[in-house]
Amino acid sequence: MSVDTGGSEELSDAEQEKILQEVERRRTLQGGAAVLVSLIGITFSAFQMWIAARSYIFQITLPLYGTIDIGSLQLLQVGAIHVTFALVIAFLLFPASRGDGFVARRLGRLESATRGQFGDEHPVTRGVSRAGDFVRWAAIDPQMNRVTPLDGLMIVLSLLPVHYTVTNYDEIQSIAIRRFDGTQGIGDVLWFLEPVVAGIAALGIPIDEASYAFWMGVLGLLLVLEATRRTLGFILMSLVGSFIVYARWGYLVPRDSVIGPLAIQPENWANIVYNLWYTVQAGVFSTPVIVSVRYIYIFILFGAFLEMSGAGKWFIDLAYALTGTRRGGPAKASVVSSGFMGMLSGSSIANTVTTGAFTIPLMKRSGYSPEFSGAVESSSSSGGQILPPVMGAAAFLIVEYTGIPYATVIIAATLPALAFFFGMWVMVHFEAVQHNIGGLPRDELPEIRSRFRSGWFYLVPIVLLLYFLIIARFSIPRAGWFTIVSVIALIAFVAAYDERSRVPLVGTIAAIFTLQLLSYATVGGNVVDATLALTGLEAAGTGLGLETAAYAAASGLGTIVILVSAAVMLARPRTVPTLLELDDAVDESAERAASKIRRPQLARNRAYRFGAFVLKSMDSGARTATTVVIAVAAAGVIPGVISVSGLGPNLAALIDAVSGGSLLILLVLTGIASIIFGMGMPTTAMYIILIAMLGGPMEQAGTALLAAHLFVLYFGLMADVTPPVAVAAFAGAGVAKADELGTALIAFLLSLNKILVPFAFVFSPGILLLRERGDEWTILTAADVADLGFFVPDVVIPILGMFLGVYALGVTIIGYQYTDVGRVRRALYAIASIFLMVPEIPLLVLEGTLEAVGIPAYLAIFELTASLRLIGLVTLVALSTRNRTRGRTTEAAETAETA
């Protein structure tokens, strides 16, 4: 049973797609083009799944034939293939122009100007008109529904750099020493162009002397810039392009000027292209893309599998079952479900639209305004990326950039994330009480126990993920692979399970697993190896110990479940599964494909639906990951330029000079920069750019490394709901059919916790459960908890202050607590919130003011911060008591008046 949304307000899949299309500037393709995108996306996901399972070695082991060695790839080659897949999909899904941009409008005026100058029949007018028609046919896609010839050209060009990188790795290694001297020319590689190259050379243009490798590097960089412009907009493309230009001509910056520290040593194009394209230490294929290859993609894919399995729909239903009848229940359920799905998807926009299509109509129906409904959904969806254990893949970026263990990252990130969602809960509750918004009738909601029983297994992959990462201590890619296998095995089992099949299904799986265990214990191999050994076709190996054999057998349990379940589904294809509720997108895709091949009855075949689930998940994961891959490829250029140009220390010195050595000013500047850089940009790209520029100065200022990285992440996520860009908020407004700016302003206010909470944990790392030991910050131990002299003032008090401050901030924003809160009292609540959460801010402001008039002071000490927290607490209690009394008086008066 699902929640009754009330019908007309619920968005159709077509409407959801249209909103995503407008916000993300993405095409809606049909026919052969759509099939091509899906095939490329599925191949991309298959490649990444192989990398996660087997690393960069491509081998297939067959019984009797042994191991077939297909080959192996170097890290640079894997990165090039990874980025090329994203480039191809980006050129298919995102148009070069819709004809409404600045350049297109100016060129469009040329035709009318020519017609006015020469008349309709003049040859010049006809020539310009035909040229315009050709450009519109070749490059412009106003309806966003067709692949243009220019896109086809871009795709062909995208294949050239990766082909060179994969097939000429030995030559690339020589470039590191001799740069491009002595490398192959264009005619040597593209032999069919030899006549063209010779003809151009005869004209005096020495193209025959040009290095093919050099031009492939230039082409690759230009393609990444173009894909960045299409997917992420002109601003990020310009920023990355300006850094490339700066790498070449940054030495011209006057060293005796205010920006003198930005001057760098002279550099030539050969070194720049080599460092930005042909190394994994800097540039496009450096750490950001490596992290995408190893971590980000596989967890985006995990989120796609979980979403397509129906987990999203089930979790939304469960959230409504638990909270739907309460006051403001639909909004509270939206906070919970959107946070959970945002954690998995890593895309504020996509989650706002897909989850919001269900939650926003229910919020509106219960009495929330359209603007508030859209704001709650977009704010919660963006906040999901700070929620452990996945954090929208941000956790894995932090692990790679800091070297901090994954377990430490998610433990440290937990309390601040809970504080944010606690604040969201408080605000939607006060809004509901203020406007007398109730919940939904119980008969319109799922029954809690039955809903939990019908989908509790969706929690298994999350539990397994934590087990693999924290207890078993698998590598992150291997944990991601095993978790995806567990999702596939889980859905296969559920699809095959029914009253008649459950005994043979479970019994067969148990029997094969037992045989597998015995095989490993006796011959050191799986059942196939044992069978070959018993028949004398292969020699028996050495048996493993029981514990090792059990571990080896368990690693293959997912494959056993998938194969046995698939056999059951094929044997009884028409049986309706008891528990399976795949996402609607899977069913629609299955029905559409079955209709195309003129076998609509296949859509009811559970083996066919299971196959559709796997392929749709792989396709969806690739589409979601494409924008992220393009973003990290482009963003990698910026830290690449900073590192190879030697700008890093100079930039840190400049930032220190601008901030005047003040940590507070540095944090404010970092926060503003994070919001600006994050506008319209994926969180991953924003994080990479900001950490490259500001991470070092923050750490040098004494900030805990993990706190600095989380600070940048929190503020970058604010960009998703900060006007004038506010892409997630605008998506929420589209779903809610609300005013865009009004929705964005409310979403910004609801997300203010993402501003104060990071200040709180930077000044009080105990909120992150961290303690400094020498030069290192580590997670608290039992001994730290027992050390009350540290634990109470550095951990307990700041955590309580954070949650109480979040509560006070909620009253400030909504303007209600028991009764309406006037402006003066709201200001007092705001002051109480700051005193409780970050008393260091007013103390540092006062400290800076005193130093400005020549009075040195150091005020950020425990005695003063504790005093301000106490003042904030007393203020909050006094105001709350007063409001409660006023509320009761008002309620009594209204009751008497009614009587």
List the helices and strands and how they pair.
Elements: H1 13-24, H2 31-54, E1 57-62, E2 66-72, H3 75-93, H4 102-118, H5 123-139, H6 149-167, H7 169-178, H8 186-189, H9 194-202, H10 212-232, H11 234-249, H12 269-277, H13 287-308, H14 311-323, H15 329-345, H16 348-366, H17 370-383, H18 394-402, H19 406-434, H20 448-455, H21 460-471, H22 476-496, H23 502-523, H24 527-534, H25 546-555, H26 557-571, H27 584-596, H28 606-635, H29 637-645, H30 647-659, H31 663-678, H32 683-700, H33 705-718, H34 727-736, H35 740-750, H36 753-763, E3 770-773, E4 776-779, H37 782-786, H38 788-814, E5 816-817, E6 819-820, H39 823-837, H40 840-852, H41 862-898
Antiparallel strand pairs: 1-2, 3-4, 5-6
Brief account:
The chain contains 41 helices and six strands. The chain is mainly α and about 900 residues long.
**What is the helix fraction of residues, given as a range?**
over 70%
Radius of gyration: 30 Å
Q: Structural class, from helix and strand content?
A: mainly alpha
Largest sheet: 2 strands, antiparallel
- Globally, the shape reads globular
| Helical segment count | 41
Average pLDDT level: 85
Q: What proportion of the residues form beta strands (DSSP E)?
A: under 5%
In total, the number of strands is 6
Low-confidence stretches: none
